[in-house]
Amino acid sequence: MGSAAQAGTILYGNNAGTAGIFKFDGSTGALITTYSQATLGHTGNGRGVVVVGNIMYYTFASSGTVYKFDLNTIRVPSLSQMSLDTPP
Length: 88
Hints:
Helix content is 5%, strand content 36%. It is mainly beta. It starts with 9 loop residues before the first strand and ends in an 18-residue tail after the last strand.
């Protein structure tokens, strides 16, 4: 039993390789844009991605760092570093 995404839903996916992060239309599944690793300013084996407001946070398998990217200005703001094994 499938479920339909709500109209206007945007989905993000981080490639478990080096292709970058993808933005999809949740209603149609259409690819809206790709944020290449060159655009993001970092390279690696992609893992997690979450968007809060206009900031996209993402991770790579080989790093304990959470990176952030401003979707409005399409630039990398100051990096937010957080150890994945140490509570905040």
